[in-house]
């Protein structure tokens, strides 16, 4: 939280600082919106905050965020040089020290049909990065075959279900090795298109992704897969968020090259992701040997089901 506090404007910092014990209780978002109170989300729900006060309801006497508060926070986030962060802001967010991500809202600017940034920023969503070391430990055996091979795996879950957290922890285990499973560890490349898996800040990963892991941060998926296979020789490529037209060819190229893949997709179950025509083709062509379904955001990184596509059956079911 110290990395977040030092970047908040004075008014917001006073409010957040008065609730530090609350933030230690699995808070995962701080939202600042003009003319609204500070809002925080944790596993128990949404709360509005003022100094030493919190409520699920909007109360009239709570401090309301001003435009000057947003401007002051943006100045701190960008070190008073917003132009230096223009490229990153084109993705709709800024990554700060500690791996935390600040989502942006406001007046969008386009050059023809391409989004190029914001004119006025009116809201900030600070997503608090947390490492849940060991969150994949009880499941990791389902990702490995015969102690030396990694299954091609698609991890499916709704927003905030912990997909990125889970694949980060899986990367650690596969990279460093798993003594209990006689798995010695292997070279991994993380194609981190949004810089979220490794949470790179100033070129330094803020999260532990393993000792045998190379990172291609802010690299488009196609270029990342191609560069990785040609130059880094990974046994496994880990990436985030399939679902585009290019993904079918990218996955096919990697598998033909003998590389295994672990990646994610937004959805609630297999039938849900099949509504995306590109993911439907990937699944029906049996590119993945395992499909993992995560639980809701109330239980981040908790696996609900694991489906073996080769045997066409469920091999893990924790719905109860």
In terms of topology, how is this protein built?
Layout: H1 2-5, H2 10-17, H3 20-23, E1 29-33, E2 38-42, E3 45-50, E4 53-55, H4 67-77, H5 86-89, E5 93-95, E6 101-111, E7 114-127, E8 144-145, E9 149-150, E10 153-157, H6 163-176, E11 188-192, E12 200-201, E13 204-205, E14 213-217, H7 221-232, E15 236-239, H8 247-256, E16 260-266, H9 270-273, H10 277-284, E17 290-294, E18 303-308, E19 313-317
Parallel strand pairs: 10-16, 10-17, 11-14, 11-15, 15-16
Antiparallel strand pairs: 1-2, 1-7, 2-3, 3-4, 5-6, 6-7, 8-9, 12-13, 17-18, 18-19
Strand order of the largest sheet: 14-11-15-16-10-17-18-19
Quickly name the level 1 CATH class of the largest domain. Answer: Alpha Beta
User: Can you tell me the CATH superfamily of the largest domain?
Assistant: P-loop containing nucleotide triphosphate hydrolases
CATH architecture of the largest domain: 3-Layer(aba) Sandwich
CATH topology of the largest domain: Rossmann fold
Structural class: alpha/beta
**Overall number of domains:** 2
**Number of continuous helical runs:** 10
**Alpha-carbon distance between the termini?**
35 Å
The percentage of residues in β strands lies in: 25-35%
What composes the largest sheet? Answer: 8 strands, mixed
Helix content: 10-25%
List the secondary-structure elements in sequence, H or E.
Answer: HHHEEEEHHEEEEEEHEEEEHEHEHHEEE
The shape, in one word, is globular
Stretches with pLDDT under 50, minimum 5 residues? none
Report the C-alpha radius of gyration, rounded.
Answer: 21 Å
